[in-house]
């Protein structure tokens, strides 16, 4: 899931001068370097203190190259956000078996999410922390991300015979709560605790749908996996 | 309720304090901010112009948004000179953060007072929810200033929002005492619930639904009590019809 190359390898320029590498490939490579540089810089310095000049320098591209692909820092930031969320969605689609029981899918989904946060802390920080400090468009993206996850959670309503009572916004609220918990660990530089959050996240997430006893069983199973 | 044997994770606290220590924030010499008629009652009349600046900041940010509010607009609305603004604040962000601190202090004081007024934890949650809702309903612009505009305004504002949410988590974490085995859950649960409640309130204020806050107060109480009183008991909260 995580790219095993070092950051300097991932930011490395293609060889200079004339070569037979297709133009599209070069453009794509530059774009990836700029998006990665944005994530690394924003995670390290925060959105406000990240400049276009720094992004270009870190990505080893000319300023003119930056402006060929992005209209502004915000444009680049939003592209990095979109790319990260789309990549995460692909991973979820690939790794979660839709045939599994719903609660197991949720458990797997949260576990994968936490693993992604731990393996890609810069991108996680960009999407979870900095997106909330980077202006209105970014906030709207963050909200859309929560809403993207909610339908999968909502499927759990079939397990609760009184589901019609549940609030309409429950799923978005739960996802927001889970992400805020992770947000707090990222902000406090306590990423080492993140994987250990799984059992309690699972308990809170599943309880409205399957009740606290069954949610507790799932949390205990998750606790055993975390401990192992 | 959640009688499980797994060890509780280490709690996250910004500081080991009860929710009541919100009151400490009152001792910093800042003004109460309630800006009806452009005045700030409850503050010593040492600098009425500063109070007008604070009131203007709340009104403008709460209606136009932080990004669309300039220092010039604030000064014009406050009927004060730019030089006075510069004596009071280092700039637009400093003004926003200072006034936000003051509004937060007033909000927290009211919520904590309500929370403390009831006896059981369950009733305390309802009382705190009511107090919060009334605060939002009194002034839609101030509610937006407090809850919505703190996002997207920079890392300083975000840190302030997070501190307030951690204090909400302090209140919610008291629900552990309702469990047969309080140690069966950690403070993480309260943090999740605090984040969930905040997101719900934010969405309602953003969509302009705060004036009907009573309608979604049961939802908030449902989320607050669900991990501690159980899903069935929490669902009963959704049947409560709050008085208007």
Describe this structure in words.
The complex is a heterodimer of chains A (228) and B (244). Chain A is 69% helix and 0% strand. Chain A contains ten helices and no strands. In chain A, helix 2 packs across helix 3 (52-59). The model of chain A has no long low-confidence stretch (mean pLDDT 90). Chain B has a single domain, classed as Orthogonal Bundle (Tetracycline Repressor, domain 2), CATH 1.10.357.10. Helices cover 61% and strands 0% of the residues of chain B. Chain B starts with 47 loop residues before the first helix and ends in a 7-residue tail after the last helix. The chains are: A mainly alpha (228), B mainly alpha (244). Chains A and B meet through helix 8, helix 9 and helix 10 of A and helix 7, helix 8, helix 9 and helix 10 of B.
Topology:
The complex is a heterodimer of chains A (228) and B (244).
Chain A: H1 7-10, H2 23-45, H3 52-59, H4 63-69, H5 73-95, H6 102-119, H7 121-128, H8 136-154, H9 170-187, H10 198-227
Helix pairs in contact in A: 2-3, 2-5, 2-7, 5-6, 5-7, 5-8, 6-7, 6-10, 8-9
Chain B: H1 48-64, H2 71-78, H3 82-88, H4 92-117, H5 121-138, H6 140-148, H7 155-173, H8 187-206, H9 213-229, H10 231-237
Helix pairs in contact in B: 1-2, 1-6, 4-5, 4-7, 5-6, 5-9, 6-8, 7-8, 8-9, 9-10
């Amino acid at each position: 899931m995580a790219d095993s190359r070092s950051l300097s390898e991932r930011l490395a320029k293609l060889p200079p001068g004339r070569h037979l590498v297709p133009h599209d490939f070069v453009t794509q490579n530059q774009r990836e370097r700029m998006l990665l540089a944005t994530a690394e810089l924003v995670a390290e310095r925060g959105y406000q203190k990240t400049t276009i000049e720094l992004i270009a320098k870190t990505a080893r591209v000319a300023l003119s190259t930056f402006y060929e692909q992005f209209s502004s820092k915000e444009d680049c930031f939003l592209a990095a956000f979109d790319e990260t969320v789309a990549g995460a969605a692909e991973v979820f689609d690939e790794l979660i078996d839709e045939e599994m029981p719903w609660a197991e899918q949720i458990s797997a989904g949260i576990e994968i999410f936490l693993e992604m946060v731990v393996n890609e802390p810069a991108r996680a920080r960009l999407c979870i922390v900095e997106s909330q400090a980077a202006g209105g468009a970014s906030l709207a993206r963050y909200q859309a991300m929560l809403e993207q996850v909610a339908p999968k959670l909502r499927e759990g309503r079939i397990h609760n015979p009184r589901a019609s009572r549940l609030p309409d916004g429950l799923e978005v609220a739960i996802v927001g709560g889970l992400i805020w918990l992770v947000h707090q660990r990222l902000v406090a530089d306590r990423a080492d605790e993140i994987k250990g959050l799984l059992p309690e996240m699972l308990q809170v997430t599943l309880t409205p749908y399957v009740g606290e006893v069954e949610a507790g069983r799932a949390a205990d199973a998750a606790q055993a996996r975390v401990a192992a | 309720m959640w009688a499980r044997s797994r060890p509780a994770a280490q709690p996250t606290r910004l500081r080991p304090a009860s929710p009541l220590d919100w009151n400490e924030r009152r001792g910093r010499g800042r003004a109460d901010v309630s800006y009806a008629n452009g005045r700030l009652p409850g503050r010593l009349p040492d600098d009425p112009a500063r109070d007008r600046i604070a009131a203007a900041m709340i009104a403008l940010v709460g209606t136009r948004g932080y990004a669309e509010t300039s220092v010039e607009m604030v000064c014009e609305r406050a009927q004060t000179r730019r030089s006075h603004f510069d004596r009071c604040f280092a700039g637009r962000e400093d003004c926003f953060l200072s006034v936000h601190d003051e509004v937060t202090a007033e909000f927290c004081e009211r919520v904590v007072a309500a929370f403390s007024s009831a006896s059981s934890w369950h009733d305390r949650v309802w009382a705190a929810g009511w107090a919060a809702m009334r605060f939002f309903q009194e002034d839609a612009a101030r509610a937006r200033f407090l809850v919505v505009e703190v996002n997207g305004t920079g890392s300083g504002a975000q840190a302030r929002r997070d501190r307030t949410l951690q204090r909400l988590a302090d209140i919610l974490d008291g629900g552990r005492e309702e469990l047969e085995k309080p140690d069966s859950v950690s403070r993480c649960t309260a943090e999740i619930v605090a984040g969930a409640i905040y997101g719900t309130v934010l969405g309602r204020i953003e969509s302009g639904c705060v004036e009907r806050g009573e309608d979604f107060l049961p939802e908030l109480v449902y989320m607050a009590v669900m991990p501690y009183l159980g899903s069935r008991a929490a669902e009963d909260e959704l049947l409560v019809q709050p008085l208007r």
